Amino acid sequence: MFYLENQDLSNKRVIIRVDLNVPLDKNSKVTDTTRIEACKVTVNTVIELGGSCVLISHLGRPKGKEKKLSLKNIVDTVSIIMGRPVLFHEDCIGIDAEKATSVLKPGEIILMENLRFYDNEIEGDMTFAESLSKLGDVYVNDAFGTSHREHASTALIAKFFKGKKFAGKLLQKELEVINEIAEKGKKPVLAILGGAKVSSKLKILYNLIQKVDKIIIGGGMAYTFIKAKGGNIGNSLFEEELLTNAKEILKIAKESGKEIVLPDDTIASTDFDNNDQIKTFKSGEIEDGWMGLDIGSSSIEKFNQTILSSNTVFWNGPMGVFEKEQFSKGTTSICISLKQAKENGVNVIVGGGDSIAALKKLGNKEWVTYISTGGGALLESLEGKTLPGVKALSNDY
Ligand code: AMP
Fold this sequence. Notes:
The chain has helices at 34-38, 40-48, 75-82, 95-102, 120-123, 126-133, 169-184, 202-211, 222-228, 243-255, 297-308, 329-343, 353-361, 376-382, 388-391, and strands at 13-17, 52-56, 86-89, 109-112, 138-141, 165-167, 189-193, 214-217, 232-233, 259-261, 265-269, 278-282, 285-286, 291-295, 312-316, 347-350, 370-371. By secondary structure, it is α/β, with parallel strands linked by helices. It has two domains: 13-168, Phosphoglycerate kinase, N-terminal domain (Rossmann fold, 3-Layer(aba) Sandwich), CATH 3.40.50; 185-382, Rossmann fold (3-Layer(aba) Sandwich). The strands form four sheets. It has a six-stranded parallel beta sheet with strand order 3-4-2-1-5-6, sandwiched between helices. A six-stranded parallel beta sheet has the order 10-8-7-15-16-17, with helices on both faces. The longest helix is centred in the middle third of the chain and has 16 residues, at 169-184. Adenosine monophosphate binds at residues 195-197, 200, 219-220, 237, 292-293, 317-318, 320-321, 323, 354.
């Protein structure tokens, strides 16, 4: 395979595509170091294997060379986290950039300027990819979060490193976790999917229904399924054009002995913004004029039992409009059940911004088995796709 284990990198300059797209405050100071910390293992591994590190990354969506999106702003923070000095070069391609990397000694690290200062990066320009390839002898992709993009630094550059390209430790871990959800997890495997729309998770539903044992569907997504089963959903979120798909997914589940677990009850209001009136309905019995905005207590109990009777659980997406206190209980309850499940030895994997935000709201999230660093990349992987940045690491590419 294309992993770093047992590779001899002595005296090799290793270009590592990392994801240092960290949030900055108005003074361009890093406000969350999670992504920097996430690439430390790969940097340390490359150094232990005898190499030096040429870090390449994007930061934000600059229009040209915007100073506030220069990676120079974060170099000190990267140094502190890596526990050794990190050099910086004010460009990512060109003769001077090549000179700066050519003198690197084993154990040294250099961070190159923001890749997106060149439009060629996201345009997927092969000449730009070739220029980048001149920065080192070996290529490592560790930027899982951008591997679903066919950008110069994530996919194209790998063409220039036949037999000399590897997945970084973070990318490796993410691929292993996806494999656990969709292929090899200890059964029963449960996926909990929530969020607003079925449309954004339709391909995942079709893929996962074949791979996992059970799927809990919550949030706004659930109502199209409840309607597909003949229920009344009042004014709740509904995607009419997906009714046929919802029926088909329910049929596939039934025929293949899989379980789709839907909410039994819902907390509804007459208006999305003005929530003066709140009432609980049984699922499928929501009166006209009311919209479901969270799961009710009976669903919470049912989902809790489903979680506790599984051995691998993946969660993505809120159970309701969790941003509002009065509709956050369903989502919070999932976090509480997951924590209990983890204590019982269940493998708990969480992905997606909203789910991570909900975990954070409850405080400590360290107890989760794994939190994915990828948003779109994770979802596309769960659709069953091989990401361009991963495909590019195979030597047929
Ligand atoms: P997504 O980006 O598809 O994961 O959706 C996340 C959004 O779904 C959050 O902002 C929630 O407020 C929203 N959401 C969850 N449940 C509902 C619901 N029942 N009705 C409307 N929006 C919802």
